[in-house]
Amino acid sequence: MRYSKTVMTKLINQHRDLHDELKKIKSEMGLEKNLAIKALYHSTVADDGPYMKEYQALDRQHGE
After folding, report:
1. What local confidence, expressed as pLDDT, does residue 51 receive?
2. Sequence ranges of the domains in the chain
3. pLDDT at residue number 62
């Protein structure tokens, strides 16, 4: 599975808890938005994360 900022942004926009987590990562770790999104991907999507299936479905839609 590959990382896509566009797909990840769609997933974040669909889930308030991911949006809140993104804000938390940015403030606590002092990361810029793009790096925070990538960190969120690795913690919630990659390696059988709780949002992996939704991410994959969005990725398929994005690729069509």
Report:
1. 97
2. 5-63
3. 87
